[in-house]
């Protein structure tokens, strides 16, 4: 009997969670006033009006939703292998309860984040190879310390941080700006599946079938920051979704870190601005882990690289490279070596794992 009542309560919570044209704070408030989502569903129109809680458009949206076949929608949802955790349920994350506008419910494919330490990693979609490498390495290092990695599965930094966490055999969670049944971006299907099969999950406050509209991504950013104990911005323009996430994190009392970049570099403007406002600076990943309370282990792979013996030409070529890509003509001019010697040196450095070719004839140091 109790189990049947629980399922019935969830059905009406599913209905109220689906009314995304009404902000979550109002939906939570009306449920608290009425005692349950079912009680809200059964309220007379006049009573709803007299509550003076909803705008005319919101009230119309609510009333129209009650004309649809809820039982049919609920049965369809149950067949999608998606979990739903409304606020107040045991598995609703405590981290979300404490923010100014908690989501009414979280929909999930896979697993939910648990009480372990978690770090959010966000940044530019059109990132540099340097930024991608940092995000991947950071995700991997955190996963190796059993830290959960939270991000948004967008192209660029987000996807790299998820991929790094998977490489580190850890749990990573993607918060989407659409229904969790929709893989967005579409070309991230392998990542979308791998996150779920590796102990992580795809999360959203939006019900299944909700399309990825632009305004939904800034809305979901508060959830990324809320689920994170601290937030790292790897690369960001002056005005970007990553800075919206950073602002949300600061409002929630979270520690915010940024990876510094070159002055005048568009992708570094956002990070440098955050540092100017007092964000923590990530200049060494081992030291960042120490700040989180982890002592770095000796990196055997790095030690091997340091022990590689380079000849004079290889040292010259390696010495003129940085973590931002350099065109081969620049390398020739800086080293004074001829094209063939430079190509031979670059080939050896790539085989040593010290250098990578980011685009055709563009090279940088491998992190």
Beta fraction: 5-15%
Approximately how much helix is present in the residues? 40-55%
Would you count the extended β strands for me?
12
Q: Name the strands of the widest sheet in spatial order.
A: 1-2-6-5-4-3-7-8-9
Structural class: alpha/beta
Please give the count of helices: 18
Alpha carbon gyration radius: 24 Å
Shape: elongated
- When the domains are counted, the total is 3
Head-to-tail CA distance between termini: 59 Å
Quickly name the level 1 CATH class of the largest domain.
Alpha Beta
Overall mean pLDDT score?
92
CATH topology of the largest domain: Rossmann fold
The largest pleated sheet is described as: 9 strands, mixed
SSE order:
HHHHHHEHEEHEHEHEHEHEHEHHHEHHEE
Q: What is the name of the CATH architecture of the largest domain?
A: 3-Layer(aba) Sandwich
Poorly predicted runs of 5 or more residues = 298-306
Family: Belongs to the DprA/Smf family.
GO biological process, one term: DNA-mediated transformation
Protein name: Smf/DprA SLOG domain-containing protein
Pfam family, one: DNA_processg_A
Walkthrough of the structure:
It is a single chain. It is elongated and about 85 Å long. It has 3 domains: 78 residues; 174 residues, Rossmann fold (3-Layer(aba) Sandwich), CATH 3.40.50; 65 residues, Winged helix-like DNA-binding domain superfamily/Winged helix DNA-binding domain (Arc Repressor Mutant, subunit A). Helix 16 crosses helix 18. It starts with a helix and ends with a strand. It is α/β, with parallel strands linked by helices. About 2% of the residues have low confidence. The protein contains 18 helices and 12 strands. The protein has a 9-stranded mixed β-sheet, with helices on both faces. A 3-stranded antiparallel β-sheet has the order 10-12-11. Helices cover 48% and strands 13% of the residues. It comes from Eubacterium ramulus. InterPro entries: DprA, DrpA_SLOG. This is Smf/DprA SLOG domain-containing protein. Belongs to the DprA/Smf family.
